[in-house]
Fold:
Amino acid sequence: DCPYLLEARQHERPAAPDPEALPHRDVEVTESFVNRNAALLMPQVFPEPRLEFEHLQGQATWSASGGRRELRMKHVEFANRDAAGTASGSYAWRHGELGDIDVVARLSRAETGAVWRYLPHVIMPDVRAWLKAALVGGRADEAKLRLKGPLKDFPFADPNQGVFQVTGRFGGATLRYAPDWPPIENVGGELLFEGRRMVIQA
Structure:
């Protein structure tokens, strides 16, 4: 079965079919979709496993061949309370496997204070907790995500295994470095997540 699940509660046009409903013979189905109030469930990747979307629109192609399933997504537009942007790429898997992914996403809007919510399991819990408490408010522009490789090796500490990189600039945030430190307001700088590494340059 598919390790990830998309819930779409309101469709303006038909959603892409369930990949597990595809027959085992070779088949390919392409659908354009516009979904409102959708949710992507990824408990194997994120501690906050439910990613809510107020708007999700694009084109998806599901294919099945010899037990292999593949999803290709073209110019998907998404928006929720924390971010808005576009994404494209592919994801392929077999039963019982995490599969391989190749995705590029660009954010036109992102709330800096919500970064912690989208950090994967591989980021240490104390780092996630620090970001949640320390980085408040602010906006990030022109952020970019690159994710490519077999998900069993995520977050690709060895660059030969794959790529996990998030880059972007942020501004207008408040930094509370430690509870007994005075907050620093209107902070701006650059964010980098790469493999297991996180860098904030203010």
